Amino acid sequence: MKKQFFNSKKHFLNDSAVGMSAVLLGLLAYIFFTSLIISFLVVNIYGINYDTPNLPTTKDVKIYDSNQDFKNGSYDLSTIVHSISSNWEYVENIGMRLKGQGGYLVINNIQPDSEDFYSNTYYINNSAINILGAHGDYCIVIRYTGVTNQNEVCIRNDGFHIYEYFLNAGIIIGNKYFYAYPNANQVENVVIKTVYNENAPSLDFYFNGDKLFITDQLNTGSNFFEWGGRYYGGVWSTTTGFVLEQFLSDNQIISLPKNTVYDQIGLLAVLFDTMIKISLYQLPAFILPAQLIIVFITFPEALFILALAIVIIRGVD
């Protein structure tokens, strides 16, 4: 009977150890993959230089001329612009022209100034005619994300719209802000300037030299589904033949060359560095507040340490 008791106790301890080991592995896997997912989202939403937005000129960073004259060939097409829909083409002596049924053309890597402003100017040729025999609608990108926190000023026949979205930027549920301007989209040669502060938030909007409006009625915050990152300049149209002739910015436009910080090894290094910063509470608070780190990372880490201590104590016994 005594031998049977000790055998039962031994089996219980073995089963308990196996169960606790499973808990340890589960907690470890949770901490690792949660940190990895958060790091991946941070890098995708804010870029690999999220903690140093104003980059210096180094051998790994090229600062481009902020005057991108597409009409006269003064640009670097491979790094400055990014076509979300692949419906844009460069046409010599004309500019960046929409060749399909619609899509975004955005500007890569515009950096905020020291006061978090983005100031951009667009020279637009809107002389193309749509299937209805009129000039079509188009939009100026303020902040492209593809989801509900996207901001853009859309120029339509009745005026200027900043839309509010549901689920993604393709589902419009109403106006966040509207400025009436009859036949706004029928003006053929247009110069538009936008001055945007993401933190305020605020937008100053100029149309052919006139300051039309200032508004703080903008979509704000981050969105979990910002998989494609953010762009702080660009255009959208549905009219084939719509042309962006020139883009100027008061901000720096940068490029990080391939095979340096954008290669696979560099990306992995940034991801793991971000994971370490999460554990040490070193991420900027606007990206991930300490309270969320405590809930998603610190508390599971504490449980892991407790479980590990129990396993060690039982092993000693």
Give descriptors for this structure.
about 325 residues, alpha+beta, Jelly Rolls, eight-stranded antiparallel beta sheet, seven-stranded antiparallel beta sheet, 17 strands, about 30% strand
What topology emerges from the helices and strands here?
Elements: H1 2-46, E1 62-64, E2 67-69, H2 77-80, E3 81-83, E4 88-91, E5 95-98, E6 103-107, E7 117-125, E8 138-143, E9 151-156, E10 159-166, E11 168-180, E12 189-197, E13 202-207, E14 210-215, E15 234-237, E16 243-249, E17 253-255, H3 264-279, H4 290-316
Antiparallel strand pairs: 1-17, 2-16, 3-6, 4-5, 5-16, 6-15, 7-12, 7-16, 8-9, 8-15, 9-10, 10-11, 12-13, 13-14
Helix pairs in contact: 1-3, 1-4
Concise synopsis of the structure shown:
The chain is of the alpha+beta class and 317 residues long. The chain contains 4 helices and 17 strands.
Structure description:
- The protein is an alpha+beta fold.
- The chain folds into 2 domains: 25-46 and 259-316, no CATH class; 62-255, Jelly Rolls (Sandwich), CATH 2.60.120.200.
- Helices cover 29% and strands 31% of the residues.
- The chain is built from 4 helices and 17 strands.
- Strands 2, 4, 5, 7, 12, 13, 14 and 16 form an 8-stranded antiparallel sheet that branches.
- Strand 13 (202-207) and strand 14 form a beta hairpin.
- Helix 1 (2-46) crosses helix 3 and helix 1 packs antiparallel against helix 4 (290-316).
- The chain is elongated and about 80 Å long.
- Residues 50-59 and 258-263 have low confidence and may be disordered.
